[in-house]
């Protein structure tokens, strides 16, 4: 077998910046091309790429979350011109995510520049975006879509197959086969591993054979609660708010979470567990992503397909308003009760959610309902942590609304689900590399897996290179 090298250029003892470099048969390919999003690693988005971008033959993407694909426009800008293999839904959601991120960068930079000018100082990174909207558009022609269960020859002797990961729409696990004469090796890249019985999506694919596995461990040291509770908690939050004659405001991510909330509301409406309130999706990005869901009904699981066929699509609720224009968004402010308002961003760091918080957070009759992880240092986290007063759009507001949080919406497998997934292999792989987790989580899962199986398992460090034989 010719020499194959695997280098960990990201998501190694941290969660974001997924990038794995495979060098084999004289070719170089990159699996995932993610942005670093943890504050302490942001500078890596600006560092020179460890190999010349134009020396990469191809890039393979597992899914359209920015920490897996958001660095692609930057690499194209720096000279990468090869093909980008991913599923059709990933290329469509990826396009939306790149453009949105380019916009956020230019808005953030304008604000930052104003602040720095006022304070007479400059920040640690260049005050230009990683890429502009125009530069994001420039990388789109590189996409070469590959459907689930199909594979593509991505370089000489290297073949990549794509399999449903059940994490977000279009998410894939990638099986890379490296051939050298009659000999071959397979590496499975898990991408983000979804959960069994999650609404809308199919369960993650389980593999029976692999020589090497590179797997995520975001929740490698935790077991999620019972997801059956989510509907009851949602029902309780809505019914109690209706009694008080207020609104329910839900900060939500545009990709996946918003659609899952709609799915669950649809179920509660159909069972008449909650009254048919007006539902507003006030996010142009969520609207575009929902259109991608509608275009790819072939990716739905059996329950969702049945709903679509029987005319009960959660995306076509008679009481659903999808808001694109700013005027329509402002008009929601005049609704004082009986509305469910879903808007981004999911951690309240920007976007239209801020206006809905301004209109509702001071009203004891309203509820602010969190359905996703709130990172340290975000407005969402401050509210969840019980701040009595918060700054929104430059002004202080007392928090008088009811604050609720529903956990368990996670799109990531927990420790036991990760173990279930990897032990689907019928014989021990040569090695399992545990990535995409905080150090404690990754190490805890590696230890757990080692104890359960006595397989060779390790947690690589940033820039580690291993030879696969
Ligand atoms: Zn993801």
Oligomer: single chain
Helix content: 25-40%
Q: Uncertain segments of ≥5 residues (pLDDT<50)? A: none
Mean pLDDT: 94
Question: What structural category characterises the helix and strand content?
Answer: alpha/beta
- Number of DSSP helical runs: 13
Rg from alpha-carbon coordinates: 23 Å
How would you describe the shape? globular
- Termini Cα gap: 7 Å
* Proportion of strand residues: 15-25%
Question: How many beta strands in the DSSP annotation?
Answer: 22
* Bound small-molecule species: zinc ion
Largest sheet: 7 strands, mixed
Question: Strands of the biggest beta sheet: in what spatial order?
Answer: 6-5-4-3-2-1-22
Short account of what is shown:
With 469 residues, this protein is an alpha/beta fold. The protein is built from 13 helices and 22 strands. Strand 7 (151-155) and strand 8 form a beta hairpin.
What does this molecule look like?
The structure is a single chain. By secondary structure, the chain is an alpha/beta fold. 30% of the residues lie in helices and 22% in strands. The protein contains 13 helices and 22 strands. The chain has a seven-stranded mixed beta sheet with strand order 6-5-4-3-2-1-22. Helix 3 runs antiparallel to helix 7. The chain is globular, with a radius of gyration of 23 Å. The chain starts with a strand and ends with a strand. The mean pLDDT is 94. Bound molecules: zinc ion. Zinc ion binds next to loops. Zinc ion (ZN) binds next to loops.
């Amino acid at each position: 077998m010719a020499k194959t090298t695997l280098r960990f250029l990201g998501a190694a003892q941290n969660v974001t910046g997924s990038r794995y470099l495979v060098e084999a048969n004289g070719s170089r390919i990159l699996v995932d091309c993610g942005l670093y999003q943890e504050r302490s690693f942001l500078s890596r988005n600006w560092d020179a790429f460890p190999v010349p971008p134009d020396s990469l033959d191809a890039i393979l993407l597992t899914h359209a979350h920015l920490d897996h694909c958001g660095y692609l426009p930057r690499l194209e800008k720096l000279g990468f011109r090869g093909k980008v293999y991913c599923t059709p839904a990933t290329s469509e959601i990826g396009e939306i995510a790149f453009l949105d991120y380019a916009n956020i960068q230019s808005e953030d930079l304008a604000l930052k520049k104003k602040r720095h000018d006022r304070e007479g100082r400059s920040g640690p990174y260049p005050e230009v975006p990683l890429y502009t909207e125009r530069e994001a558009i420039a990388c789109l022609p590189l996409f070469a879509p590959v459907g689930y269960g199909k594979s593509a020859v991505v370089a000489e002797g290297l073949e990549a197959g794509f399999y449903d990961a059940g994490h977000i729409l279009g998410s894939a696990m990638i099986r890379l086969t490296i051939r050298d004469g009659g000999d071959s090796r397979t590496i499975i890249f898990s991408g983000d591993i979804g959960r069994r019985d999650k609404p809308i999506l199919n369960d993650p694919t389980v593999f029976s054979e692999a020589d090497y596995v590179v797997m995520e461990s975001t929740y490698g040291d935790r077991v999620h609660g019972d997801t059956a509770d989510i509907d009851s908690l949602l029902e309780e939050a809505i019914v109690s708010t209706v009694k008080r004659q207020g609104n329910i405001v839900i900060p939500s991510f545009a990709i996946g979470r918003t659609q899952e909330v709609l799915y669950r509301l649809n179920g509660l409406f159909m069972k008449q567990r909650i009254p048919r309130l007006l539902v507003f999706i006030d996010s142009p990005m969520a609207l575009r992503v929902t259109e991608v869901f509608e275009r790819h009904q072939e990716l739905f699981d059996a329950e969702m397909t049945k709903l679509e066929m029987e005319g009960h699509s959660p995306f076509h609720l008679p009481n659903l308003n999808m808001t694109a224009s700013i005027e329509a968004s402002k008009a929601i402010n005049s609704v004082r009760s009986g509305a469910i308002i879903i808007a981004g961003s999911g951690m309240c760091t920007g976007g239209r959610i801020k206006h809905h918080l301004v209109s509702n957070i001071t009203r004891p009759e309203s509820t602010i309902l969190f359905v996703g992880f709130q990172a340290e240092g975000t407005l969402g986290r401050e509210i969840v942590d019980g701040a009595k007063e918060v700054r929104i759009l430059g002004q202080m507001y007392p928090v008088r609304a009811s604050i609720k949080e529903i956990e368990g919406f996670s799109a990531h497998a927990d420790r036991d689900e990760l173990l279930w997934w990897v032990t689907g292999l019928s014989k021990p792989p040569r090695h399992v590399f545990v990535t995409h987790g905080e150090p404690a989580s990754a190490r805890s899962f590696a230890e757990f897996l080692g104890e359960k199986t006595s397989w060779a398992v390790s947690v690589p460090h940033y820039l580690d290179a291993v030879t696969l034989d």
